[in-house]
Design goal:
There is one protein chain. By secondary structure, the chain is mainly α. Helix content is 79%, strand content 0%. It is built from 13 helices and no strands. The protein is globular, with a radius of gyration of 23 Å.
């Protein structure tokens, strides 16, 4: 009996080790393959110019700016909504059934395929609200997609604040809102920032929803003009250059840029979490 138990334990350890090695191998292979194929094709001319149909040159500066516009517009809208909803559900709402329904709806939203968001965004924002195919319509679609991420991470962070902090502040005569913005929010700012960074990662990597709402244009525009115009993000540009134009070298260059951005976003999430954890323990 003891021998069978040892065989079982060693077998499970070997299986878990094999799973870990395979997972790490896939990640390293994917990152390495994209970087090897893409980095040699990244040039200053590529990232600092716009496409010219007269000369046939290719530049992705408009796509980089469009991605920045999408990130800024989406975060400016979704951050107050997500944080406000999380504060209401955690601090103000008293009906647990309503809270449960809202949380279930948020979980359902996070599991819907992005192509469905794109279809709904095209019908609602582009056609019904007459925003047409624009970065603003794409940003509003991304707001709905990233809202569950911001809301859930903020909620979980609010739950980590000890109840004694609230009771102590109330005991000193502070009102509800004063307790929230002077005691609770400073203690859970790490969760809010982490949620924002995760949302930025999803915005940068999203393509399916933007195909229907933001469009394919490579025009170079300012921020306020650009958000009302059609514009391709880096992921949409990757699709266009690879699928429609057959420019695989440019597609791999964009893929390498996106891979670097993804690694930096994940790394910054870890650093922010560690920084605020150390600061809280001081």
């Amino acid at each position: 009996m003891q021998t069978k138990r040892k065989v079982y334990i060693y077998g499970m350890r070997a299986l878990m080790l094999l799973s870990t090695i395979l997972t790490c191998s896939f990640v390293v292979f994917l990152i390495g393959y994209v970087l090897i194929k893409g980095l040699p094709n990244i040039t200053w001319k590529l990232i600092s110019t716009k496409p010219s149909y007269l000369t046939g040159s290719i530049g992705i500066l408009p796509d980089i700016l469009n991605t920045i516009y999408l990130v800024l517009t989406t975060i400016l809208i979704v951050l107050p909504l997500g944080v406000g909803a999380a504060i209401y559900l955690s601090e103000y709402a008293t009906n647990k059934k309503i809270v449960g329904v809202i949380e279930y709806a948020a979980e359902t939203l996070s599991g819907i395929p992005s192509i469905v968001y794109g279809l709904v965004g095209m019908l609602v924002f582009c056609q019904f609200l007459n925003l047409k195919t624009s970065i603003l319509a794409g940003s509003l679609t991304l707001v709905i997609m990233t809202l569950p991420t911001i809301m859930r991470t903020t909620q979980e962070s609010l739950k980590t604040v000890p109840q004694s902090y609230r009771e102590g502040a109330f005991g000193l005569g502070a009102g509800k809102w004063r307790v929230i913005h002077t005691v609770i929010l400073p203690c859970c700012v790490d969760g809010i920032i982490t949620g924002c960074i995760l949302a930025v990662g999803r915005i940068v990597g999203e393509s399916a929803a933007l195909l229907f709402t933001a469009g394919f244009a490579h025009a170079l525009n300012g921020f306020f003009t650009g958000i009302t115009k059609s514009g391709a993000s880096l992921t949409v540009a990757l699709y266009v250059y690879a699928k429609e134009q057959g420019e695989f070298e440019v597609a791999f260059a964009i893929a390498a840029i996106l891979m670097i951005l993804t690694v930096l976003i994940n790394f910054s999430t870890t650093l922010v979490g560690q920084y605020f954890k150390k600061r809280r323990n001081l």
